[in-house]
Design goal:
alpha/beta, two-stranded antiparallel ribbon, nine-stranded mixed beta sheet
Length: 249
Amino acid sequence: MTIDAIILAGSLNDGKLKDSSPVLYEALITIGKKAMIEYVIDALLNSSNIGKIVVVGPEIKISESAADRIKFTLPGDSLLDNVQGGFDCLPASRRVLVATCDIPLLTAKAVDDFIDRCRDETVDFFYPIVSRDVIQSSFAKAERTYVRLQENVFTGGNLILLNPEILPRCLAKGNELVKARKNPLKLSRLIGLSFLIKFIFHKLSLTEAEIKVSKMLGIKGRAVVSPHPAIGFDVDKPADLSVVTEVLA
């Protein structure tokens, strides 16, 4: 069974990369001979597990052979609006892969491997994580944000596989957590003080984190340890762009 996909490409080029390219959207920044988003589209098109693709962002020229698989829709005012806009274009999909547009090193092999690790249909939400060792062994110059758990040190990935029906259930609690992220007292009340202390002192296990997040959001979520560094390497600053340009060259 194939899975449909959404590419989030609605971010304006007004952040750290704005001096690297004059284009309006980050997705359109040129790397080599192609726009950044084209590398992500190619990886999904070449995946044996992906069916239709919805791009939430600017429309670009695509090959005639891919025209029947790709749909473009305009971005909304927020990330959640963009995710919902993509879901609206795929009303019959029970599982959807969501990818960001800023992972140009993504490959079809990495996509297929992630999906193959997400076959449990009782799980609502799969999120990939990549160990620091895997990232640094491939991209020594990469600067990532890492979290230390009992098992290892990880960075988050840029793919999500989820059941679209869970989004409304998660919105209220998700927004609450985002608003509290800079208020330790409020965050500890939402998450639980013991959980927060374990996290701070690196005593938290991956299983404990999965259980806590699933309970808070009212879903069944699972972290997937990926051996593919490209999933955890997004381009959000000029240094990342330099690394990717060098690798693709």
